[in-house]
Amino acid sequence: MWQWITRLYHQLGSPKWFMQLTDKWLPWLIAVTALGGLYGLVNGLLFAPVDYQQGNSYRIIYIHVPAALVAQSAFVMMAIAGAVYLVWRIKMAAWVAKAIAPIGASFCLIALFTGAIWGKPTWGTYWIWDARLTSMLLLLFLYFGVMALQKAIESEEMSYRAAAILSLVGVVNIPIIKYSVNWWNTLHQPATLKLTEKPTMHIDMLIPLLVMIATTYVLLAILVILRTRNEILWHERKSKWLKQRLES
Amino acid sequence: MHPKRKQRLSLILFMVVGVSIAVGLLMYSLSQNINLFYTPTQIADGEVPIGQTIRAGGLVVAGSVEREEHGLGVTFKVTDGFAEVPIYFDGILPDLFREGQGIVALVRMNEAGLLVASEVLAKHDEVYMPPEVQDALDQAHSRGKEALYEARY
Fold first, then answer.
1. How far is A17 from chain B (nearest CA, A)?
2. Is A79 contained in some domain?
3. Entry pTM
4. Is A219 within a domain?
5. What is the rounded CA–CA span in Å between residue B9 and residue B3?
6. Residue B150 to residues B127, B133, B137: CA-CA distances in angstroms?
7. Which of B15, B37, B129 is the best substitution to test chain A (most A C-beta atoms within 10 A)?
8. For residue A85, what pLDDT is reported?
9. Which of A43, A83, A117, A168 is the most buried (most CB within 10 A)?
10. ipTM of this predicted complex?
């Protein structure tokens, strides 16, 4: 098992292998996303029972929670890729980090936006400066900062290094987001899905939510793979193997 | 591992740990300011200065909501299980406001010691369930634990 993982890791580190592997993976990943998204959205938005307190407005959870989880996970992924680049100087890691940044930022924006829409009818306000909302906004700005560093510095190597360091500093924010609702008084409620306890949600509402979360993670994988392939096409545009690949 | 890579890796780990400690200490020292609201216990203990606008949060005490005969004025008590404080509000309450519900209010303490709210927000909890389950739970509550178990599963 471990050997298989290390082999996969080394293969993904090579642009040529990455293209070949993802050629095979992409159709499956897209099929899973289409099916999961269809099942999760139809069940969540139409067939899941209404909430005893919020009525139908709770259904935004099927977008909000997956987007928020994926935005945070994508940041951790970006930081790990950055660390791999800083230590081993593997170019693929830097390209993956560059591919993740705008995708993570988009999911973060979706989470903030859907949260605001839900907050108005439930809490009575679109926005409040409590610890959860503020730390999530900080995550969005960290994404913007990483994206800016990737673009702003002329030397590509320096820009990757600067962005990797910012994402490693910014990753400290992730546990703060996660535990903000437990450490401080906030308006945002604590997590419904917990790792160690039973979720405080009815099973008919829970299953579509879990499906949507899994699907959104697969969607993240697809988007990151596609953007990484673009980076490869651009950076390897003069290499022989890519020319052969495009001709065949 | 190559010694140079080892050095870079330990440098990165050192940086992340260092930043975590710095941020952790910052958060700890600012924790009173990061808390969104004062609890009823803190207010009852006199931690709230008179005339200053703060946020107060707690559960609305059952049976404490009194509406004025004319106008929108309403007085209710909030509790955190230890202390109860009365809040006066003249305005439209959120839909989720009811007895037993968590709320967060923007309040100012007047000279008489009464908290006057200028905004009341409902705090939602992490429980999601269909209304039938809630009805069943309410009924079961009066019938006892056995019925509660049946209603839930």
1. 24
2. yes
3. 0.88
4. no
5. 10
6. 19, 11, 10
7. B129
8. 95
9. A83
10. 0.77
